[in-house]
């Protein structure tokens, strides 16, 4: 026995050679602890024990040789297992079988494992099926049920002597009291390990982080950096599966800010992958916009901004980014540096060299790490199965969260916005005649066409169906009627977006695109039959725009499109004829306008529209909309989260599949 202190749990892997015992041990420990390869000869030739921290528990995994390899192998394994059972250790025995045909050799191996364990060991045992990828879309239960029926039919044609000796797969499951689990060792998915530990009672259900009761273990991480730095690959490594699409060149593979989540090491982790900062983005104002978008995606606020840097030659673009970040992160009005750290990728290229020496060798990298409070970590994304590097990374994040008294980053960057943007804008001409307009609405309402009509040229791509043509918030500008007009065209609000939290996110993204803030939110409504989706949107908008913490309704108006369909009917009468539309217009202070986008050459309608915007700007003392919606964020999201009660994970119930 190992003289080290006893682990919280010892897992012993039993079975014949080639079923995936070593690979399963690696899956459990989250790293390549045991040699595992495709071979005609047994790879594991002696009992081998490795330890690791798994979901906060010290777990020891014991890999054993194939139980049928040699005459004395079974006896050696039996001695080890019986000694273990007599010790004070908490044990779990996994009898490993590969999904597929249950051969006579498999039957012999199962019999041998049962002899090794004895009655006491069988009480602490599970069947572990490997090769989960071979099942494709079929569940393990369906596979076993199919095997049961197949096996019963075959038994009818067999002699009585063989029936007595034969151990069918369904009978084996019954002998293990219906305790079985499935691994796909080709996937870096630790959830299958968590599920096994939960099933077997070695991980408390109330600690399952999927329960919203303990959100203090949630972690929201924003990855920032240049194209090719390894952000997407790092996101996949952190989450333990391929959630983001990595690239192998210096063109940005991630076209827009996206987020993915998974349960990792007892935490609910959300990673926000941002587009690589290109030369066009590497201006203070554009960099600010991109970071703001990532904050929106990580609502109600990220716990960490992680600057991803590839180990190797530092380029001019790297230096430019390193010099810009302190202007955003380390200033009198923003303490984002307290929430930041550096992640070095391509750790395999260190080749034994000290990372500390490497950092000190470049003043730009050294300054970046210093700005991040000396916090950094190293990843080798080629070694995705090495979960130890992920644990170390998340421990660093936890330390940072603790130092920040458990708080996530929220309004600091927003408070910085005015100062930062004003400094940038003060270098340019007077912007009192600028107009920044955000178009909101359902797919097919006519937002893109209206944007083109307002700007006087085809800037946006309109569509002729109800699928969203605009995949992300985009802005275009032009000089219109003596004003510098910028129009933000947003994706049409689909059924997936029509929840308060998602709707909030999309509107936040439009505000970022309209920095330092929009002068008008224009709700685009198509004249015609009002659908259920229209009504749902009309009912949600007041929750965002007309509340105690937000006065966005003062900056909003309705734009009714397809004006040609009025055919002489009064627009006022049409509005009053529908209580939902009437309520929307009332929320917008009675402000509305009509556009006929087929008559693009009619600039009179555009002048009338911009005059309405000017009247609204005058009523708002020339101010654009800035921080009100940000102040509303936490209230809105807390209300939503309070409605979703605690979903405690139910313990799995096991029953024998054989009657």
Quick overview:
Helices cover 37% and strands 17% of the residues. With 659 residues, it is of the alpha/beta class. Helix 16 packs antiparallel against helix 21 (628-643).
Structure description:
The chain is α/β, with parallel strands linked by helices and 659 residues long. The chain folds into 3 domains: 9-206, Rossmann fold, CATH 3.40.50; 212-415, Rossmann fold, CATH 3.40.50; 429-642, Rossmann fold (3-Layer(aba) Sandwich), CATH 3.40.50.300. It contains 21 helices and 18 strands. It has helices at residues 21-29, 73-86, 104-122, 140-155, 160-165, 169-175, 191-199, 231-239, 284-297, 316-329, 355-360, 363-371, 388-403, 412-425, 447-455, 500-513, 532-545, 571-576, 579-587, 604-619, 628-643; strands at 9-14, 48-54, 57-63, 91-98, 125-130, 180-182, 219-224, 258-264, 267-273, 304-310, 340-345, 376-378, 435-440, 474-480, 483-489, 520-526, 556-561, 592-594. The strands form 3 sheets. Strands 2-3-1-4-5-6 form a 6-stranded mixed beta sheet, with helices on both faces. Helix 9 runs antiparallel to helix 14 and helix 16 (500-513) packs antiparallel against helix 21 (628-643). The radius of gyration is 31 Å and the shape is elongated. The two termini are 41 Å apart. Mean pLDDT is 77; it is low at 151-165, 206-214, 248-252, 411-429, 627-641 and 643-659.
């Amino acid at each position: 026995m190992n003289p080290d202190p006893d682990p919280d749990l010892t897992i012993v892997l039993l079975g014949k050679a080639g079923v995936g015992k070593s690979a399963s041990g690696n899956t459990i420990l989250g790293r390549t602890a045991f040699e595992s390869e495709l071979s005609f000869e047994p790879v594991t030739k002696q009992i081998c024990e490795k330890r690791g921290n798994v979901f906060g528990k010290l777990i020891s995994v014991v890999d054993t040789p194939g139980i049928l390899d040699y005459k004395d192998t079974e006896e050696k394994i039996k001695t080890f297992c019986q000694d273990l059972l007599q010790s004070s250790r908490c044990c779990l025995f996994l009898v490993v079988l590969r999904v597929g045909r249950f051969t006579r050799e498999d039957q012999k191996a199962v019999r041998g494992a049962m002899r090794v364990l004895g009655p006491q060991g069988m009480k602490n045992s599970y069947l572990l099926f490997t090769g989960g990828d071979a099942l494709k879309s079929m569940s393990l239960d369906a596979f076993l049920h199919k095997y049961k029926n197949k096996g019963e039919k075959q038994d009818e044609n067999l002699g009585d002597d063989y029936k007595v000796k034969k151990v069918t797969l369904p009978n084996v499951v019954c002998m293990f009291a219906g305790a079985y689990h499935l691994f796909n060792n080709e996937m870096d998915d630790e959830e299958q390990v968590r599920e096994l530990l939960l099933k077997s009672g070695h991980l408390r259900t109330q600690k399952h982080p999927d329960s919203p009761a303990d959100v203090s273990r949630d972690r929201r991480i924003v990855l920032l950096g240049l194209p090719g730095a390894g952000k997407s690959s790092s996101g996949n490594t952190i989450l333990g599966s391929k959630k983001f699409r990595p690239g192998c060149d210096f063109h940005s593979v991630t076209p827009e800010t996206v987020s993915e989540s998974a349960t990792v090491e007892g935490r609910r982790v959300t990673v926000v992958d941002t587009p690589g900062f290109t030369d066009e983005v590497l201006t203070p104002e554009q960099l600010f916009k991109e970071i703001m978008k990532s904050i929106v995606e990580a609502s109600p606020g990220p716990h960490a901004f992680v600057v991803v840097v590839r180990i190797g030659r530092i380029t001019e673009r790297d230096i430019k980014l390193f010099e810009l970040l302190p202007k955003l992160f380390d200033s009198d009005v923003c303490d984002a540096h307290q929430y930041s750290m550096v992640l070095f990728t391509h750790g395999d290229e260190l080749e034994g060299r000290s990372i500390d020496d490497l950092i000190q060798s470049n003043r730009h990298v050294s300054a970046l790490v210093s700005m991040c409070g000396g916090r950094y970590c190293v990843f080798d994304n080629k070694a995705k199965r090495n979960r130890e590097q992920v644990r170390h990374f998340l421990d660093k994040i936890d330390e940072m969260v603790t130092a920040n008294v458990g708080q996530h980053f929220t309004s600091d960057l927003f408070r910085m916005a005015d100062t930062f943007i004003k400094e940038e804008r003060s270098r340019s001409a007077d912007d009192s005649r600028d107009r920044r307009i955000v178009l909101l609405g359902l797919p097919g309402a006519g937002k893109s066409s209206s944007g083109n009509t307002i700007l006087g040229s085809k800037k946006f791509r309109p569509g002729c169906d109800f699928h969203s043509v605009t995949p992300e918030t985009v802005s275009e500008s032009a000089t219109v009627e003596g004003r510098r007009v910028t129009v933000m065209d947003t994706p049409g609000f689909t059924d997936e977006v029509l929840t308060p939290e998602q709707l909030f996110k999309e509107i936040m993204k439009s505000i970022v695109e309209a920095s330092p803030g929009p002068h008008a939110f224009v709700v685009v409504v198509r004249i015609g039959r009002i659908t259920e989706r229209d009504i749902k949107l009309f009912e949600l908008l007041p929750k965002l725009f007309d509340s105690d913490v937000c006065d966005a309704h003062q900056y909003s108006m309705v734009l009714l499109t397809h004006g040609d369909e009025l055919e002489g009917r009064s627009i006022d009468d049409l509005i009053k004829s529908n209580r939902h539309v009437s309520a929307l217009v009332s929320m917008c202070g009675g402000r509305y306008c009509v556009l006929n986008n087929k008559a693009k050459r009619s600039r009179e309608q555009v002048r009338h529209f911009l005059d309405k915007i000017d009247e609204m700007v005058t009523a708002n003392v020339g101010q654009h909309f800035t921080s009100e919606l940000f102040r509303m964020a936490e209230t809105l999201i807390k209300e939503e989260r309070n409605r979703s009660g605690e979903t405690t994970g139910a313990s799995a119930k096991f029953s024998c599949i054989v009657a």
